[in-house]
Amino acid sequence: MLGVVRIFQPVHGYDVRRELLSWHLDGWMNTKTGSVYSALKILEKDRLITGTALAGEPGRPERTEYVVTAEGEKEFQKLLRTSWWQVKRPAEPLVPALSLMLFMSRGELKSALGARLKQLAAQRDELAFIRASIEDGATGADGDVPEHVREVIDFGDSRIKGELEWTRSFLKRLNEGTYSFADERNMDGHPRPPDTIDARRKSL
Amino acid sequence: MLGVVRIFQPVHGYDVRRELLSWHLDGWMNTKTGSVYSALKILEKDRLITGTALAGEPGRPERTEYVVTAEGEKEFQKLLRTSWWQVKRPAEPLVPALSLMLFMSRGELKSALGARLKQLAAQRDELAFIRASIEDGATGADGDVPEHVREVIDFGDSRIKGELEWTRSFLKRLNEGTYSFADERNMDGHPRPPDTIDARRKSL
DNA sequence: CGAATTATAGGCAAATTTGACTATCGACGT
DNA sequence: ACGTCGATAGTCAAATTTGCCTATAATTCG
After folding, report:
1. Are residues B93 and A79 in contact, defined by beta-carbon separation less than 8 angstroms?
2. DSSP secondary-structure letter at B135?
3. 3-state DSSP helix/strand/coil % of chain A, to nearest 5
4. Torsions phi, psi of A167, nearest 5?
């Protein structure tokens, strides 16, 4: 990401990785270690940044520091502004599974949703913890995480709240017997009546 | 995606694309035309599906139909269940821009957020429209979209609601003068007082 | 001290995705 | 009868990403 270089320049690849981690952006972007270096190379090829090989210090000759060029600065502003002005839908990892939900059994699906509720709650706790570790008025001038990174946390938290709400309402619908699952299909194609009656039948 | 083949088998590549579109999954998954065919080839290589070349009909000899193997069925169940039991965080496209927000001006950011609110509202309207086009009790047996696809819509709608809430609260914070933007930095490094005072100063 | 682990720095082959392209058939208007 | 447009069906090179690998300094720990 061009922006990271823009903030921390001059930087080398390892710095970029480190800062992405320290701002806790790794959970919301898919940036693996390897892709940082190739991204930098591509940016350099496109003349948006320029790299200088640093040999200086004793045993560490292999290090390339990058700075943003004038062209890169222009491109950066353009990218930043379109990111803000244009809403882009993220790829939701649950959607494929959701489309295939009828291949599960109603019982397992309910259990899985319960597990998801717990995991989502745990994620929110973790976010709260990270948020609390950001100092009031931090500017990022020292090595610290600047205050506005809290917005990243809050943004994520809101999305999770949204998913929590949907999960609860979906669970309610499942309990009411909505939909006909793979293990419930009988002649007429209607869903089976809810659990109480099933249980009675079983006890016969 | 293995699952799509599982539902519609036997299918060929073009079918897969068509069904993904008809279920409106394209907005939440990143599946471009080309990737469908390579995905099918990989699944075939791994023996999860088997393809049969169909020449039959007049002018269209090039067509390969796929069915899921026994192994593929097992793998399918495994993938489906881990997708449900394990919450995975999506890559949020706004997060990079959010981290770089201080490189914007407060004014433009507020305008952009206003535009986002409108776009998000429009997306919800569109989702409502699609949702309404799904018939009650549809099973997907004919060419229609099965009823449970509504859950996909509702899931997405909840995420959007979450983003809407955050956007409004962020806008409020911006109006209160929180954070110090690139165009607002003065000696002491503190944010400027809120708009009212700015306006007064301007009128002098 | 010496060994093991962690932090620093980066490379690269293989897998995957992208996006633009080819080619045929049928329907439609003119 | 002809050109065009959209739907059908799929290919492929180039761009990108992934995972795992190398190597040295620094730090920890019994």
Report:
1. no
2. P
3. 60, 5, 35
4. -60, -45
For the stretch A113-146, pLDDT in tens is 999 999 999 999 999 999 999 999 888 877 789 9
Q: What single DSSP character describes residue A137?
A: T
Q: What domains sit in chain B, N to C, each tagged with a CATH number? A: 2-85 (1.10.10.10), 94-199 (no CATH)
Does residue B59 sit in helix, strand or coil? coil
- Closest residue of chain A to B119, computed from CA coordinates: A87
Q: How far is B61 from chain A (nearest CA, A)?
A: 31
Pairwise CA distance, residues A23 & B100, whole Å: 12
Residue A63: pLDDT band by 50, 70, 90 thresholds? confident
* Interface predicted TM-score (ipTM) of this complex, two decimals: 0.87
d(CA B40, CA B29): 16
Quick one: pLDDT band at residue B60, thresholds 50, 70, 90? low
d(CA A82, CA B3): 35
Facing B84 at nearest CB: one of A77, A112, A166: A112
